[in-house]
Amino acid sequence: MINILSLGAGVQSSVVLLMSCRGELPKVDLAIFADTQWEPPEVYTHLKWLEVEAAKAGVPVVRVTAGNIRKDAMEKQVHNGERGRFAAMPLRVLNTDSGEGMLRRQCTREYKVMPITRYIKEELLGYKRGARMPKEPVVTQWFGISIDEPQRMRTSHEKWITNQYPLIGFPDEMLDRPMSRLACHAWFDKRYPGRELVKSACVGCPYHTNHEWLRVKADKATWEDAVDFDKRIRNMVGLEGKAYLHRSLKPLDEVTLEDPDQLDLFEGECEGLCGV
């Protein structure tokens, strides 16, 4: 059985990788990061550090990608009214007749799940596209999901993959006790003082809380990028209404981000399984 970590480079999956490298969890054979090519700069900086730490323990970290999610969204609009193919981000839409709503979230599956599955199948196991796969599990895929977010657990859609949640202890117990997100922070702070865990999500993720938008805004170039994207999606081809990134349904650069925010239930963190 091959053990593979779906690495989002966020809080929990980073801790799972480091615990594996330090011998506090069984050693994974490989960690795979699916790059949407639109993560904040601090995520890529943190990922580079993780790659170095993993290499010390002999754990390779592979980057895969299905393309640039921002570029793909923009190209959808240059077909002179013809609708281009795009795996929808969960944009917030305001329609004068039907009110407000949210697009179905497809981006996690197409930009996170599928590239990782494809790499395991074709590059690691050597099966060609369309080939018949084993009917029994040959891969155990680990996910960094903590005990306070069990709603994000899923069974694998592939018979040849078994999903494993080391921090929760399902289906196999690997730790003395389950770990929460706060426990992950505490574990990391004790062993890597002076470093900071980051939240993994696209720059323009519509699930961002005001707190996360303020983090984006802290970097001038990243903020300008998000504001530009928000303006460009307003009249996206194929949508019945105007699209926005912020839950207030206001232009991003007009939102008062210091206002009290909603509870963050981790849905904005894209660790490779959420929303699927």
Give the helices and strands, then pairings.
Elements: E1 2-6, H1 11-21, E2 30-34, H2 41-56, E3 61-64, H3 69-75, E4 92-95, E5 99-102, H4 107-124, E6 139-143, E7 161-164, H5 181-191, H6 210-217, H7 220-232, E8 242-244
Describe the structure.
- The chain is an alpha/beta fold and 276 residues long.
- The chain has a single domain (2-254), classed as Rossmann fold, CATH 3.40.50.
- The chain contains 7 helices and 8 strands.
- The strands form 2 sheets. It has a 5-stranded parallel β-sheet. Strands 5-4-8 form a 3-stranded antiparallel β-sheet, with no helix packed on it.
- Helix 1 packs parallel to helix 2.
- The model has no long low-confidence stretch (mean pLDDT 89).
Task: Give a quick summary of the entry.
With 276 residues, the chain is an alpha/beta fold. The chain has one domain (2-254): Rossmann fold, CATH 3.40.50. It has 7 helices and 8 strands.
Number of domains: 1
Oligomer: single chain
- Secondary-structure class: alpha/beta
Helix content: 25-40%
In the predicted model, the low-confidence regions spanning at least 5 consecutive residues are none
What series of H and E elements makes up the topology? Answer: EHEHEHEEHEEHHHE
Tally of alpha and pi helices = 7
CATH class: Alpha Beta
CATH topology: Rossmann fold
Number of strands: 8
Largest sheet data: 5 strands, parallel
Measured distance between first and last alpha carbons: 24 Å
Shape: globular
Mean pLDDT: 89
Overall CATH architecture:
3-Layer(aba) Sandwich
Q: Which strand order do you get reading across the main beta sheet?
A: 3-2-1-6-7
What is Rg? 19 Å
Please indicate the percent range of residues in DSSP E strands (runs of 2 or more): 5-15%
